[in-house]
Amino acid sequence: MTGQLVVISGPSGVGKSTICGEILKRLVGSYLSISTTSREKKAGEQEGREYNFVSKDEFKRQIAADNFLEYAEVFGNFYGTPRDKTLSALEQGKIVILEIDVQGAKQIKEQYPDAKLIFILPPKHTELQRRINDRGREEEREIEKRLAGAGIEIAAAWRHYKYMVINDDLEQAVNEIIDIIRR
Ligand code: 5GP
Q1: Phi and psi at residue 36, in whole multiples of 5°?
Q2: pTM beyond 0.90, yes or no
């Protein structure tokens, strides 16, 4: 393995996707892994861009076939990192970015102790609620689940992540993360 593995996690609504998009644009040789998920595709999402969308049965078949480098159940749906594509990007020397949750990050850390684990925090708790509401993607019950999950995830992050970055100002957060990756 010649590339570098970077895990980026954070609660729902913290701005992970925007940050990862900026890193991809600015960091030469970076590659963002597209996860497979059993969750429903939402409005504005495209097959193969945000995720590879599959049924629960298909996801389970892929677990049995050992297709995932890591996988987890998050908010009642399965999400996993495709093994082959990720390893081949690493073999090509890429900086491979995994936008995954804390359970997935732990699995990656066990297999790849050199992986850099970065957790993104909101400047304040109310900010998450505002951002999740603003993007208008989830129904009320789904929003409640995501806000409740945020507290648990942030608590776990203090134990498992070496780097914590606050996303108050996007530009500053992206620069900080690029610095961490280059270090
Ligand atoms: P969403 O449904 O909002 O797109 O994602 C929900 C959560 O699943 C987020 O915390 C996201 O980081 C996580 N997630 C997305 N892809 C993966 C994956 O491949 N593996 C794991 N473990 N978590 C993922």
Answers
A1: -100, 140
A2: yes
Report CA-CA distances (Å) from 115 to 7, 13, 98. Answer: 7, 24, 10
Say which residue the tokens 């040789």 belong to. Answer: 29
pLDDT tens for 99-136 read 999 999 999 999 999 999 999 999 888 888 888 888 88
DSSP-assigned beta bridge partners for residue 72: 79
- 100 CA distance to ligand 1 centroid (A)? 5
Q: Residue ranges of the domains in the chain?
A: 4-182
Q: What is the domain class of 4-182 according to CATH?
A: alpha beta
Distance CA 78, CA 11 (A): 17
Which residues contact ligand 1 via a Cβ below 6 A? 9, 12, 35, 39, 70-72, 74, 79-81, 99-101, 103-104
